Amino acid sequence: MNLQEAVVEPPYVAFAIRPNPGVWEYVRVNSEDLSVEPITSTQYLKFKERVYDEKWLKEWGFEKGWGDTAERVKETMRTLSEILQAPDPVNLEKFFSRIPTIFKVVIFSVHGYFGQADVLGLPDTGGQVVYILDQVKALEEELLLRIKQQGLNYKPQILVVTRLIPDARGTKCHQEFEPIIDTKHSHILRDATIKVLDLMEGKPDLVIGNYTDGNLVASLMARKLGITQATIAHALEKTKYEDSDVKWKELDPKYHFSCQFMADTVAMNSSDFIITSTYQEIAGSKDRPGQYESHAAFTLPGLCRVVSGINVFDPKFNIASPGADQSIYFPYTEKDKRLSQFHPAIEDLLFNKVDNNEHIGYLSDRKKPIIFSMARLDVVKNLSGLVEWYAKSKRLRNLVNLVIVGGFFDPSKSKDREEMAEIKKMHDLIEKYQLKGQFRWISAQTDRYRNGELYRCIADTKGAFVQPALYEAFGLTVIEAMNCGLPTFATNQGGPAEIIVDDVSGFHIDPLNGDESSNKIADFFEKCKVDPSYWSVISASGLQRINECYTWKIYANKLVKNVPIPSDEPPKPVGKQPSLKQQGTRLFLGS
């Protein structure tokens, strides 16, 4: 083999090889991971052209980044020309969304055990870990695509910063640095600012906080380094507990609301932009104030009074709804992708009549469809409420079986008083209404892949998913179920009311009216008995809704597009007069 030529364009080295007369081969080597891939002669010649004629665009006053093809460069320059002649919002957004400004991202998730395996179910550790790992994968893909489309060879870096926990309980939470699975340039860092600067060889372009503690830490880092900050609250606690502000002294020993409410207020005001999953999170509905809206003015008697906490008309608010990992949560109809290795375990989980540590109760009539719910066992998630609706409804009990996944069976295994009370209530309902033979209670499940197949197995029975929460900020299990093609009934209090178009892509239920909700579910199954195709219509409509609005690709695109262009202007006070853009937002929100 005869090496004829090498072209260096970091981090790549391209080689032209002549193994025999008249025979040429070309390969590209990545100097960072030493991976080798064959390339075409066209790709090799592009390498040479960039090296030998690299500065032709600079001679005209243009840096790299206008596009990866002549057509894209032309389109970007045409857009700029139109803006210079007659600026309009559409072209401005189009142009600025193409400017490559985000290459290094830091994401904070401080509480709980943040890891990639064996952490779900540990203290303060649940869906937020799944959310952020999926967010990172989608964000990296979006950044790689945008950077490539603009003709750049830079590689993005994403660091998830969390706590280092010496007593890691069999997880990797004691490791300072850990690559994120299924990504190329993303890692978990269990350290802080100095290490971030060292690993990224400079300041990050964007820092994203998650939850109260992560948002506060992100605010401190953004202020210290002078970088763009985004906050994601996920769920602001203030609206979950009635009069939690004026009763803070009573609730503080358990919930520390005085600290939490002020930390949330500081973070939302210091942030350059706020990412929410739903409109209701910002401004609520006609009947219920939004989570952010509740921070506009409130008092903690004896501590402080907040008279201008947040302006819900501020354009810093951006709605970007997350999705579910579609390699795990995919339609039940995709038979070739089904995880059949889990079927024996799921069969046992659903239908084995012997009680054990994983399931109690049994289903005597396996031909009935299954209504299914999966959540934490607490008052707000209202799983015991769903069991009570079912228990009291003769129609439902004749039509379907009920399967619940959540919590423990033994109250002594829980350390949470609220969960203990819910466990006792579940046992009382089983005995009072004689639910054995129609009801299966499965303990909390942490294997996402098996859970995905469990949704699909429920769909095989022509069942449905029910999310009965008293309030749900977003509703990730709703997204998961609809992704799997499972018709879904979800609370009308919070995010699911936006995810589902009632009677089209699923159904809204009132968690405060059990009779109405159980009748609505029964109506659906009676209609499916008369017209079996109706089940498939709702299933397909739910999938369509997800693919149009609730995927990680859509989320990542919105997030990157909405990052504000950095400026040297000092931050404005919260109580300033509304700008024209804020007035437009006010009109959109219906004020």
Automatic annotation (TrEMBL):
Q: Sucrose synthase first GT-B domain spans which residues?
A: 190-351
Gene Ontology terms: biological process: sucrose metabolic process
Q: Which reaction is this enzyme known to catalyze?
A: an NDP-alpha-D-glucose + D-fructose = a ribonucleoside 5'-diphosphate + sucrose + H(+)
Annotated segments matching region Disordered? 567-591
Which residues does the UniProt record annotate as the domain Glycosyl transferase family?
A: 362-526
Residues annotated as domain Sucrose synthase N-terminal: 3-49
Which UniProt keywords are given for this protein, alphabetically ordered?
Answer: Glycosyltransferase, Transferase
Q: Which domain of life is it from?
A: Eukaryota
Residues annotated as transmembrane: none
**Coiled coil spans:** none
Q: What is its EC number?
A: 2.4.1.13
* Molecular-function annotations in GO: sucrose synthase activity
**The family this protein is said to belong to:** Belongs to the glycosyltransferase 1 family. Plant sucrose synthase subfamily.
Job of this protein: Sucrose-cleaving enzyme that provides UDP-glucose and fructose for various metabolic pathways.
What is the official name of this protein in its record?
sucrose synthase
Organism in which the protein naturally occurs: Trifolium subterraneum (Subterranean clover)
